[in-house]
Amino acid sequence: MSDAKPEIWFYHLERSTLDQVLPGLLEKTLQRGWRAVVRGAVSHRLDDIDEHLWTYRADSFLPHGLASEPHAARQPILLSESGENLNGAQALFIVDESELGATEGYERCFIIFDGRNEQALQQARERWRTLKAANANLAYWKQTDEGRWEKAACSSP
User: Fold this and answer.
1) DSSP 28-87
2) Around 121, how many Cα atoms within 13 Å sit in the side-chain half-sphere?
């Protein structure tokens, strides 16, 4: 884990849902050799994500577990409501408007928000302003009409 400030990437969902985007981002995280924490605001939503990661593809699943279950520290992907990095993850995924919290020790943080939800959009804008004022290393990603992700803005320290 690094002592440097992490990259904080905002993912603006407009054409896809969290259930469509999150597994692909987690796959890429594991391919890098990183572990991940997915932080959600409410346990029932993490239960939904837990079920989805087992079944999102017929030929595959993503190895993961809930922080509330035994052996949390051994999980490549940990689903959690807490701010603790119990599995030594390099990547933090913030979903469903949960708090970002401390980012020390992470290489990259992903703030994934639904741009079709006005409250989520306003919260993401406020987070961007706050993090930019704190001199964070930011990037904003949006989907093209074809569904690919492209970097639309960045702010480096």
Assistant:
1) HHHHTT--EEEE-SSHHHHHHHHHHHHHSBTTB----EETTSTTGGG-SEEEESSS--TT
2) 7
Cα distance between residue 115 and residue 118, in whole Å: 7
Q: Is 110 helix (H, G, I), strand (E, B) or coil?
A: strand
CA distance 24 to 10: 15
pTM above 0.90, yes or no: yes
Task: Report how far residue 120's alpha carbon sits from residue 116's, in angstroms, rounded to the nearest whole number.
Answer: 8
Reported as a single tens digit per residue, the pLDDT across 14-48 is 999 999 999 999 999 999 999 999 999 988 999 99
